[in-house]
User: What shape does this take?
Amino acid sequence: MLVLGIDIGGTTIKFGIVDPANGSIAAESSSVTPQSGSKAVAEEIARKVRELKSAYPEIDRIGVGVPGSMNVDRSIVRYPPNMIGWKEEPLQKYLSELLPEFKQIEVDNDANVAALAEVHHGAGRGLSHFLLITLGTGVGGAIFASEGNFSGVYRGASGGAGEFGHTSVDLNGVPCNCGSRGCIEAYLGVHYLSARTRKKLDDDKSIVSILRSEKNELAPKLIASAMNDGDAFAKSVFEEAGMLLGVALANAANLLDMHVFIIGGGVAEAGAVLFDAAAETLRSRVLANLRPVVEIRSAHFGNRAGMIGAAMLVD
Assistant: This one.
């Protein structure tokens, strides 16, 4: 059975025709995320879904991952910081009204669905506990646990557990869209990281030539490209990002007795420099009994985990 898996991001919506049984993707597409509220996003999704259904008429189920915490029954998306104009939004209702021909439409937090992909078919296979981190427009998190009679994503008292991106690494740090300060998202989220890098630039830094030639936002993939070409300043950007990430991971490890951290998303594609700095900081800050066992893994599905996991929401 093929399912349409949709991953809503702050800048891009990704669509995948997915086989949930093995995590394979038969086809994928994307569109720009509307910046005028949840109804506009639902309408854009409906437009794209009809386009995809013309090529795959057998598709009759949809799973959707969306940034922001969900209520317990996953009917309401609540105050996603990077989605303009969103407050408490009944996204599943909007989509069901726009796409009544579909038998099932399920919605969940984007990091939660990425965790489903990784635990069943990816880097989380065989693990009883892990924390999944997504580094994209925002920084998401999902807590997977299997103990006693419970096995799945831990949702907390009101459905919103796992908001790793809004744990603070600096009491008086930079402002975050969520209203707090010093959140790890305010350092590692795509636009935050780009703005932070731009602010540090001097004319004698070689990465400036890349920025000027692209005439674009100084996106993490451009910084990574400069780093891979030997630019020392670009490398320092990801070393600092990794150090800050490691601080937040250490907080989570000490709080949750968590040993394995699976990290994916666009910023994670910076690779070893980011991961090595994070691992070094993580081990230096966790309790002594955790130092030998804490581990960072790269997400197996990378930036596609959201689409794949979303498809796994349906029956």
